[in-house]
Design brief:
The chain is an all-alpha fold and 397 residues long. It folds into 3 domains: 73 residues; 263 residues, no CATH class; 41 residues, no CATH class. 68% of the residues lie in helices and 0% in strands. It is built from 17 helices and no strands. It is globular, with a radius of gyration of 35 Å. InterPro entries: Sphingomyelin_synth-like, Sphingomyelin_synth-like_dom.
Length: 397
């Protein structure tokens, strides 16, 4: 590119010099024929001076381009630095206190949801609202248990993989807990302010009979029971459920957020696991509508909010630290300063997706995980991981 630029300027300089010389000779001859007029002599001298200045400027430009081309051709190509080499020089702090604080906030948000459900159960109507999906498909009671199993399996697999195998597990865990706590606090407020009736075909036969004289002790007892069940809708001995937590779906929040995190924080060599989790997530959300545990809009809003909050947080984490305080679009968010505190000591940019066995033994598993993460072609495990990486299907999530 520099050599082409040099040749182009050289040719243009020759052409401009030829044109300047021809025009100057023509103007000089004209001026010589009119030497008897003083004003014309002064004008001719000005033309000659202007011609000399243009010629010298053109030569200076040519010399600058010439030196730049020589300097560019003399430079050696720089070696490409891999992501592993960059990550070795960057320190990612553990910050246990932030991780523990995020987990405590998540537990508080979950408890707040259970208290909101306990209070809303006694006041919601038992007449279901019309839904397009319900009009096209009848209620399937088996889908409730299947949906709980699929959602729970997806969440457990995602958490186990990130907590056990990812090198930066504590940073990811507190980010996930932070996002989930915000979503569940939003859900608790939605349940409290607007009481949407249950979505079952016959709510009087599916829901526990409301109690109009509930006191604080009974509400706390219900909340603790839901907490003991990890928020799952487990029927009582009579086969009845608690109703009232419709807007929006807590199952979808949990399964979609954990799936987003697994897709974002896993190397390409484990892409089959990504597709398994995506399939499980989609089937679990479909079962929520098939069993009429939630309205279709509950599932849709939960997925959209989970996706938006995940994208906002990670877009903020990717910004350089010097730009974050000047980002007005983020400063308008209520959660801006909490995000800033959470990420103030974490290097900006995407976390390197490196796998690591957290224990010193057994050595076989530790070597297996290390060779898989490094794509070590000298080992059979590394060659297998490299083959899977080269033949991956992108999820775009």
């Amino acid at each position: 590119t520099y050599s082409r630029l040099w040749s182009y300027h050289k040719m243009s300089d020759v052409r401009s010099a030829t044109a300047i010389e021809s025009s100057s000779s023509l103007k000089t001859s004209v001026c010589a024929n009119r030497a008897d007029i003083n004003d014309e002599q002064l004008q001719c001298s000005n033309v000659q001076d202007e011609t000399k200045e243009r010629s010298s400027a053109s030569r200076r430009i040519f010399e600058v381009v010439k030196r730049a081309a020589r300097a560019a051709t003399s430079q050696r190509p720089r070696a490409v630095i891999s992501e592993e080499e960059i990550s070795r020089d960057i320190v990612y702090p553990l910050e246990w206190h932030k991780t523990i604080s995020s987990l405590i906030a998540l537990a508080f948000a979950m408890m707040l949801n259970h208290m909101a459900l306990s209070a809303a159960h006694d006041v919601v109507s038992r007449n279901a609202l019309p839904d397009l999906f319900f009009a096209l498909s009848k209620q399937h009671d088996w889908a409730l248990d299947v949906g709980d199993v699929l959602c729970s399996s997806s969440v457990i697999i995602s958490l186990l993989f990130i907590v056990i195998l990812h090198k930066h597990r504590f940073i990811i865990l507190r980010r996930m807990a932070y996002n989930l706590s915000i979503l569940y606090v939003m859900r608790a407020f939605c349940i409290c302010v607007t009481h949407i009736p249950a979505s079952y075909k016959n709510n009087t036969k599916k829901c526990i009979r409301p109690s109009h004289d509930s006191d604080t002790i009974s509400l706390l007892h219900r909340s603790l029971k839901l907490t003991y069940q990890f928020g799952l809708q487990i029927a009582n001995p009579q086969g009845l459920l608690m109703c009232g937590d419709q807007l929006f779906s807590g199952h979808t929040i949990l399964v979609s957020t954990t799936t987003f995190y697994l897709n974002h924080y896993t190397p390409h060599s484990v892409w089959p696991l990504r597709w398994i989790l995506i399939t499980t997530c989609v089937l679990g959300m479909a079962c929520l509508s098939l069993s009429r545990t939630h309205y279709t809009v509950d599932v849709m809003i939960s997925y959209w909010l989970s996706s938006i909050l995940f994208s906002i947080y990670h877009a903020f984490a990717s910004m350089p630290h010097s730009v974050r305080l000047r980002a007005r679009a983020y400063r308008r968010l209520i959660i801006f300063w909490t995000m800033f505190v959470m990420e103030v000591n974490v290097p900006s940019g995407r976390l390197p997706n490196e796998l690591e066995w957290p224990f010193s033994r057994p050595h076989s598993i530790k070597d297996f995980v290390q060779n898989w993460s490094d794509l070590d072609l000298t080992t059979r495990v590394g060659r297998l991981a490299d083959f899977i990486d080269a033949h991956r299907l992108n999820t775009h999530l």
